[in-house]
Amino acid sequence: MAEYQENGARLGWLINRQDRQVEIYRQQQSVEVLENPNILLGETVLPSFVLNLDSIW
Questions:
Q1: pTM
Q2: Do the domain assignments include residue 33?
Q3: Domain assignment of residue 26, given as a range
Q4: Which of 20, 22, 33, 54 has the maximal Cβ count within 10 Å?
């Protein structure tokens, strides 16, 4: 994920289906880890984007 951030990505999600875990990467912030979330929001990067994770789990 570091390479994406170095190239300007402001938001990144690493979805681990096996553990039902999502790591959220934001520029100049610590990684946030979510356990079994239902949705992911695009925050200020993609303001109206919502990813429903029900079909992924």
A1: 0.90
A2: yes
A3: 2-52
A4: 22
